[in-house]
Amino acid sequence: MNEEYTEKHGLTEQFDTEGLTEVRRLSLDDRFKFSCHKGLACFNTCCNDINIFLTPYDVLRMRKAIGLPSKEFLKRYTIALLGNDGLPLVVLKMMEDEKKSCPFVTLDGCSIYQDRPWSCRMYPLFPVSSNETHVLHGNIKDNENNPPSPPFNKGGRGGLSGEEGFLIEEKPSCLGFKEEKQWTIEEWKKDQGIDIYDKMNESYKGVTLHDYFQRGNKLDSGRAKMLYRACYDLDEFKRFLFETRFFDIYDVEKEIIEKTKEDEEELLSFGYRWVRFSLFSEDTLKLKDKALDKLLQSRRESGIR
Question: What is the pLDDT of residue 274?
Fold first, then answer.
């Protein structure tokens, strides 16, 4: 994981200092105008030189769309770094051309459009809570000392618990805002296929916004790598489950084992269970050794980890 990536690649890119961009807060009932299509002169330009943090479900969908194993996809198309709380963060790697283009953009648009990331689907909307103005893409932030955060992290564009609204950043350079098509927030989310992403990201959100981090705790490198493997490198996590004595040690329902073996979404969901058990000592898994499992439960109840 490259902790120097943030400084080297400018993740704290400044918001429009000339005041040309209009930033508005929207409620669920507000309407906005926007439409992006190939007929616009600015088509594809918003996909260049941009910071896109990927959720585990983003990576799952993207790599399946192009048929790559998880390790190969992560190596070829992403850069991993560490957040201040030790959480592994995965950023889409831009191409090393003059425009710093997205590797999946073609003249006809996104080559993985049906499996594009959550952030791309949500644009131009940025979920925020009432006391937040942090969002991704390095476009909006509250001051120079607070860089943009990943989705579902403290200050991230995934929204916090108690999310109350959305920001919309209307750049003059984006001709999509001059189109006549109007949307409500819910209409936009339905049109962009956000629901399945929100559903799958709830468990990830539960990890990144866990009380463990709210209390100021930080993951060491070993735990960060464990979380990264369980959530992002699913092929490696699957080998960990099925090529070791994992299911001899942990009491997991046969139906769940079979689903985890055959379905990658189930595998990811099980990865979140493993993370909550391992990192936060939650009762999401049980040991087959009843005496040892009882001991672990008593340690949890007494607050010992």
Answer: 97
Asked whether the beta carbons of 201 and 171 are under 8 A apart, the reply is no
pLDDT digits (tens, 9 = 90+) for 157-200: 333 344 568 999 888 999 999 999 999 999 999 999 999 999 99
Closest CA to 238 of 215, 263, 220: 263
Q: Are residues 151 and 269 in the same domain?
A: no
Helices (H), 165-193: 185-191
How many distinct structural domains can be found in the chain? Answer: 2
Write out the residue range of the structural domain in which residue 122 sits. 5-201
pLDDT confidence band for 145 (50 / 70 / 90) = very low
- State whether 187 and 248 are in the same domain: no
Nearest-angstrom CA–CA distance, 47 and 44:
5
In the predicted model, what is the mean pLDDT of the chain?
83
- The pTM of this model reads 0.83
What sign has the CA pseudo-torsion 71, 73, 79, 80?
negative
**Is residue 67, in this structure, part of any structural domain at all?**
yes
Q: How many residues does the chain have?
A: 305
**Number of neighbouring beta carbons within 10 Å of residue 174:** 18
Q: Write out the two tokens for 267.
A: 């595998």
Residue 275 amino acid letter: V
**Pair 105, 248 in one domain:** no
Residue 33 domain flag: yes
Examine the pLDDT at 140 and tell me if it is beyond 80. no
pLDDT digit string, tens, across residues 148-163: 445 555 444 333 344 5
My answer on whether 166 and 256 are in the same domain is no
Statement to judge: residues 238 and 184 lie in one domain: no
Say if residue 33 is in the same domain as residue 179: yes
Rg, C-alpha atoms of the chain: 21
pLDDT at residue 149, as a whole number:
45
CA distances from residue 136 to 206, 210, 303 in whole angstroms, order as listed: 19, 21, 36
Q: How far apart are CA 149 and CA 141, in angstroms?
A: 9
